């Protein structure tokens, strides 16, 4: 009986992954290129919301810095995949080894993710000693700093003009694979001893410290891991829409991601997935109405109203901090 139970979890997980892959295959075969691109963006937003839930939901941080790491990842991966012939006149201040380098997408994404993680570690050394709204303001300032550097470092980023003509290397399968990796990592983390240490830190840092948990290291790990995934997401996004500017990933995106986490439930990975799909679909559905009525910004208002309604009727989010029973059975060892 024990052997059957231990075998059921992985099989069920593979079955769910296969079913999702079949849906993606069907969508790619039936839907228009516009809707397929929208689905790819939805998958990236899903991965972003889940990765933010690792730091904000599991570890209890209040970080708004995901757009900054996305910007870093977007520029790094774009430069690494740019044809050398175009770098000569578009990016004249690049170091010589970058001027002649052109990497495939996967290595470029890994370098972008590692760059984002290293910067998150350096930023986290002083910043993660802050708590609550102080940490939120500090990470919000990180967005401003990264945007300022990208705007003024013209020899490396072309300043406010941004980079265009970036190779369109990202497809829906890249986005699906990335989302699957992020969701799997987050769920495995949540139901591990490390995840329990993160949640203990979130609930009561002093009690966690008294139990031998290094809360500073736990927060650093969550912050760096979230930054790695955010930087990779930025790299995928820039190779999907083929352009990036210093303001491509702004405070508005930070608000949307936090809204996804809060609406889905802080600490709930499944809730983040549901909220990311719902809010991305809602924003795109409202966009034609914006253009027809001239009420630009209506999609953002819709997201804000949705957040207010959820906070009013379900303060803990749609799923609270828990997961559906079938998810717990797959990743949590048949918890009741």
Layout: helices, strands, pairs:
Elements: H1 2-30, H2 33-58, H3 66-81, H4 84-90, H5 96-99, H6 105-127, H7 133-152, H8 154-157, E1 163-164, H9 172-190, H10 193-203, H11 205-210, H12 215-241, E2 243-244, H13 251-264, H14 269-293, H15 298-313, H16 325-331
Antiparallel strand pairs: 1-2
Helix pairs in contact: 1-9, 2-9, 2-12, 2-13, 2-14, 3-6, 3-7, 3-12, 6-12, 10-12, 13-14, 13-15, 14-15
Measured between the Cα atoms of the first and last residue, the distance is: 17 Å
Q: Uncertain segments of ≥5 residues (pLDDT<50)?
A: 1-7
**Radius of gyration, in angstroms, nearest whole number:** 20 Å
Q: What is the H-and-E element order?
A: HHHHHHHHEHHHHEHHHH
Within the largest sheet, what's the order of strands? 1-2
Question: Architecture, CATH level 2?
Answer: Orthogonal Bundle
Distinct helical segment count = 16
What is the beta-strand fraction? under 5%
Q: Which structural class do the helices and strands define?
A: mainly alpha
- CATH fold name: ABC transporter involved in vitamin B12 uptake, BtuC
């Amino acid at each position: 009986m024990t052997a059957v139970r231990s075998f059921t979890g992985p099989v069920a997980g593979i079955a769910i992954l296969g079913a999702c892959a079949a849906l993606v295959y069907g969508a790619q075969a039936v839907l228009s290129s516009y809707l397929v691109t929208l689905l790819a963006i939805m998958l990236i937003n899903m991965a972003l919301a889940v990765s933010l839930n690792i730091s904000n939901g599991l570890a209890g941080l209040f970080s708004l810095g995901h757009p900054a790491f996305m910007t870093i990842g977007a520029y790094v991966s774009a430069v690494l995949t740019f044809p050398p012939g175009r770098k000569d006149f578009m990016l004249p201040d690049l170091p010589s080894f970058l001027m002649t380098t052109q990497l495939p997408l996967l290595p470029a994404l890994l370098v972008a993710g590692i760059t984002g993680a290293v910067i998150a570690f350096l930023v986290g050394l002083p910043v993660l000693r802050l708590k609550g709204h102080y940490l939120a303001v500090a990470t919000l300032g990180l967005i401003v700093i990264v945007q300022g550097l990208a705007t003024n470092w013209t020899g490396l980023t072309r300043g406010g003009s941004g980079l265009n003509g970036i190779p369109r290397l990202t497809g829906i399968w890249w986005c699906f694979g990335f989302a699957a990796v992020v969701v799997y990592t987050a769920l495995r983390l949540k139901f591990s001893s490390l995840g329990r240490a993160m949640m203990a830190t979130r609930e009561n840092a002093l009690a966690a410290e008294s139990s031998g948990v290094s809360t500073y290291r736990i927060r650093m790990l969550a912050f760096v891991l979230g930054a790695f995934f955010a930087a990779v997401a930025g790299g995928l996004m820039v190779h999907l829409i083929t352009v990036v500017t210093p303001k491509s990933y702004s405070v508005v995106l930070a608000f949307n991601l936090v809204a996804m986490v809060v609406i889905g439930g802080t600490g709930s990975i499944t809730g983040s997935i549901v909220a990311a799909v719902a809010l991305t679909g809602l924003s795109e559905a409202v966009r034609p109405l914006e253009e027809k009525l001239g009420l630009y910004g209506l999609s953002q208002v819709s997201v804000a109203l949705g957040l207010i309604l959820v906070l009013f009727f379900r303060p803990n989010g749609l799923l609270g901090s828990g997961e559906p029973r079938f998810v717990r059975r797959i990743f949590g060892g048949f918890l009741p």
